[in-house]
Amino acid sequence: MDKKMMTIDLNSQVLLDKAERDGVETMYDRKQSFKAQCGFGLQGNCCRICGMGPCRITPKTPRGLCGADEHVIVGRNYARMVAGGTAAHSDHARDIAHTMALASRDGNYTIKDEAKLITLAKEWDVETEGRDIYDIAHEVADVALMEFGKPYGVARFLKNAPAKRQKVWKDLGIEPRAIDREVTTIMHSTHIGCTADIDSLIHMSLRTSLADGWAGSMIGTRFSDILFGTPTVRETEANLGVLEENKVNIILHGHEPSLSEMIVLASEDPELVELAKEVGAEGINLAGMCCTGNEVTMRHGVKTAGDFHQQELAIVTGAVEAMIVDVQCIFPALAKVAKCYHTKFITTSPKAKIAESTYMEFSEETAYEDARNIVKEAILNFKNRDKSKVLIPELKSSATVGYSLNAILGQLDRVVNSQIDPAGTLKPLADCLKSGVLRGVAGVVGCNNAKGISNKAHITIMKELIKNDILVVTTGCGASAAAKFGLMTKEARKLACKGLATVCELVDIPPVLHLGSCVDCSRILEVVSETAKALDMDMCDLPVVGVAPEWMSEKAVAIGTYVVASGIDTYLGIMPPVKGSSRAVEILCGELQDMVGAKFTVNENPEELAQIIISDIEKKRVRFEKLV
Ligand code: SF4
Ligand code: MSK
What we know:
Blueprint: H1 10-22, H2 27-33, H3 39-43, E1 46-47, E2 55-56, H4 70-102, H5 114-123, H6 133-149, H7 163-172, H8 179-189, H9 198-228, E3 234-238, E4 248-253, H10 257-267, H11 270-278, E5 284-289, H12 290-300, E6 303-306, H13 311-316, E7 322-325, H14 334-339, E8 344-347, E9 358-359, H15 367-380, E10 397-401, H16 405-417, H17 427-435, E11 440-444, H18 456-466, E12 470-475, H19 476-484, H20 498-507, E13 512-516, H21 521-534, E14 544-548, H22 554-565, E15 569-572, H23 582-596, E16 600-602, H24 606-627
Parallel strand pairs: 4-5, 4-7, 5-6, 7-8, 8-9, 11-12, 11-14, 12-13, 14-15, 15-16
Antiparallel strand pairs: 1-2, 3-10
Helix pairs in contact: 4-6, 4-8, 4-9, 4-22, 5-6, 5-9, 8-9, 9-21, 9-22, 10-12, 10-15, 12-19, 18-24
The structure holds iron/sulfur cluster and Broken Fe4S4 cluster.
The site of Broken Fe4S4 cluster has 14 residues, from helix 12, helix 19 and helix 22.
């Protein structure tokens, strides 16, 4: 295997060698065995929606058995991806809302950001005067839970968008109603014998994706901030070099902060720290992975061990006592890799049980006790570590993280008012865009995809954008990549062009800002929406883009679709499975422009994609400068 063609991460390359020596199979081995992927799957024109199929579209068989053509089949598959992604983000949000309904002054979960709760309560017309904060929290949680299944009305957060954007959604009839209703409607409409019109399938995909961005994900982010604290700027480190030889290493992987927050607390429990010492370790070392990693680094500065493609490699270090997971983006392969070492692979969610893992159910009702038991299991496993199998790679990078919208406002106000004003606005950012000091802002987000070389597209594109005075904000595994490659250090401003470098110096920020997990793409919506409002514009008028260079999950398809539906042009480094329908490509990469003011652009060459983005931002600026 040519490791350099697999990943640009040097730690990963070292561990791939080790995996080979240890006889452990990883995703990269499987990638090599999958010589050619199914062409029908890649094009999206294979249908197995009913039991008469699978039906595959070829020149000789241009229709499935029911008569569905390639446009219908591709459109249905696309819509189902959007529904899957929306369901995942939103079900995560539902759990956080349930957690808030359980919050109490002396319970496992307390309210950490009262001001944010009061603001939300007022937005949602929940009485706040003279009421106990927990009564307010419980009522707000009930209102949020109704957002999933309310029989009438549209998503509450839509009214936070600029008025012009709200009108676009209303005129097109894509205002999302209850979250579950939108997901269910897609599952119903894509059942055999329902919608057989590609335009209509994309129309309902737009509406459902907005139920993700402007409802499910937004609830997930806001409620997490209220319960666990709104992230503030802090220092951390990233990459597998954060594992420590003499400590009990615990990796937190998955998505929902309800579990990881409790594990963070339990890992600081004096009794458990003492137990770690009793078993011969110097202490407990927590490290995050994927989006759980992003959640805990944003709020606690917990170090990031790595991204989606490094989950198996973390275990290959031989130094991990427990890999604790909840939901989403967890390789089933971890069970097999863990068996090659002493690592306990601990699953915790009834929504993501994995064969051959150690299942220790985590419940919000008994959260702290459950977390303690899980951490204890990890500590007791330290004695089983085989020193001869340990190889912790050296590289790690420092990073400044924690840029919630409030943190960004705080940093900006520092410049304008020499003090932090919690009621600050994004006007300084708008002014930088107006003057052209910043040419634009790019949200570079998403996963790693084995179709390319891990991390290459992310890092190539981010570096190229900051070199052209485009501020980068990032979430998900894109954020982990940026942290690993040093782009979240303040010194990285040296890689930026003069305008961005000056802004970074004045505002004291890195050129790439960590906004959180994949659910937290809703923070990007808020930044763009508030900036547009500060300029009395629509979101599509700003020189702002979304980029998903290495996307892979259905959640990413939902994100990309709601970003476009919000008026933000979106650039993909991997072609979605829609090429089988010329009409689908025509709409997604063309006609959406007239409908929602933005569209998709796809190019699988990262260097070329970066140049297209830069040139498109300059084109957007011409119109933007006329409007301001
Ligand atoms: Fe084939 Fe139509 Fe059934 Fe799809 S829904 S599997 S195209 S018969
Ligand atoms: S974890 S969805 S690989 S960003 Fe959110 Fe990373 Fe993508 Fe999963």
